Amino acid sequence: MLAAVPALFFATGLLSVQASMIVLLGLIAVQSFFQGLAVTSEGAATTRILGDASVTSEERTKANSILTFIAGILSIIAPAVAGQIALLGPVMDKTGVGGAVIYAIYAGAIAVTGLIYASIKMIGGPSKAAAATSSEGAAVRAAPRSLGGTLKGLWLSIKEGTKIVFKDRFLRTLLLMSMVTSLFSDPLVFNVLPEYIENLVASNPGSLGAIMNIPGLGWFLKSLTATPMGNFAMMMVMASVGSIVAAFLIKPLTRLFQKFGFKTDEALTIPFFVLAALEAPLFLLMINTTTIFGVVGLYALQSLAVGFVGIAIQGLYQKNLGGHKDTNINKILAAQSLLGIGAAILSTFVYGFLLKDIAISTSLMIAAIATGVMALLRLAAPFLSFSKESRRTPPPAGEPVPPAHATPPAGDHQGPNSIQSFHL
Questions:
Q1: Angle, helix 17-50 to helix 57-86, in steps of 10 degrees
Q2: Contact 385, 170 (CB under 8 A)
Q3: Which of 6, 11, 135, 174 is the most exposed place for a label (fewest CB within 10 A)?
Q4: pLDDT tens digit string along 19-56?
Q5: Spatial CA neighbour of 168 closest among 346, 390, 340
Q6: Which of 206, 210, 234, 192 is nearest to 347 (CA)?
Q7: Whether residue 293 sits in one domain with residue 280
Q8: pLDDT over 60 at 400, yes or no
Q9: Helix (H, G, I), strand (E, B), or coil: what is residue 91?
Q10: Could you report the per-residue pLDDT of 68-97, keeping only the tens digit for each?
Q11: Is the same domain home to 203 and 97?
């Protein structure tokens, strides 16, 4: 589907503008559908691998840190490359070919990714959960469904997945924070900050002049600002830098918090969520900063503060889903995906059409309030997500549990002369 976009671009002379737009939107819609399926399947596969009981917490954290590091590096390199491609000159008497070339590269990358996935062989055979549900899956495959039956089955799966999410206190808390982020925090921030940073640069045009003349760094910044994101691309790069630093520091920081008594994975979320809550004061400080370097620096610190708990929660999320049957994992992921899409559509309509004419200062203040609400949720998240027992420090491994007969019976000895009364 993506490969057809460059072909459509060069065929614009054969089709009218209206016909080209209809075909383009249709291609994007179909591609988005299949991409959603691919992302859900990829998430399920990653969860099955890292959520397996044989994977230790240290291994899970290391794997998620590596994934975060790779994603951060690519998020820095990709905008710079895209900026250079966007500067391409006319080809075949057509200007603006950079976008078509980027779509072609994207299509090629997805094709290579598909070939890599197809070549992967799961070592060790199917998991126990997969073996337990193999007969059920075979029965489903043996009975072909009509389109109506398939849609009905999909709806039932999403419905069952939603029930599972709401019954699990950890998944329920994650859903709550995700909905607040999707409905309020992210749309406000990403709708307002691009305009805010452009106004800041326009008010002080010489702030980037000296850096733009530095060899290497100037080329990199010019490539970033040549993308449709403009100067906001610098903030996105700094956010990636914050995520990369978090991936490097998560291990020593975990050891430090363990020395303070946060021994279990669940207990470690308490200090990590406290760090994440610092995003609110950092955001408030950022929107009151008048220099471009102060803004991008504070944005990087926000990403760093949130990055630690992101890695920690990802591991616990994989561990949680690893305890479910394979069929339930797909249902949970499908339900979360549908709810996220619904929230994104609603927020796009509200902030893109209903609240599009509000002043930027008002939007920034609303975004600050939303970030503050998110910070309060993060402070409460460890206690909403996990029981007191799961947050409690486990007994030393060498300390034996006393047998039942060695425990003094309480009986009815609760009178004034009982042994227990001396400890009240």
A1: 160
A2: yes
A3: 135
A4: 777 777 777 777 777 777 677 777 777 888 888 888 89
A5: 390
A6: 192
A7: yes
A8: no
A9: strand
A10: 999 999 888 887 887 777 777 666 666 666
A11: no
- Per-residue CA distances from 126 to 56, 137, 326 (Å): 19, 13, 11
pTM of structure: 0.77
- Is 264 part of any domain? yes
Q: Which of 181-185, 278-282, 405-409 has the highest mean pLDDT?
A: 278-282
Judged on CB neighbours under 10 Å (0-12, 13-18, 19+), 14 is: exposed
Given pLDDT bands bounded at 50, 70 and 90, which one contains residue 301? very high
User: How many domains are there within the chain?
Assistant: 2
- Asked if residue 364 lies in contact with residue 192, where contact means CB atoms within 8 angstroms, the answer is yes
Token reading at 119? 């070549």
Q: Residue 182 belongs to what domain range?
A: 60-87+168-391
Whether residue 348 is found in the same domain as residue 201 = yes
Contact 279/302 with Cβ under 8 angstroms? yes
pLDDT band per the 50, 70, 90 thresholds, residue 415: very low
Determine the 3-state secondary structure of 123 from DSSP: coil
Write the DSSP symbol of residue 323. Answer: T
CA–CA distance, 137 with 158 (Å, rounded to integer): 17
Q: Do residues 126 and 48 lie in contact, with contact meaning Cβ atoms separated by under 8 Å?
A: no
Same domain, 345 and 376: yes
The Cα–Cα gap between 388 and 154 comes to 36
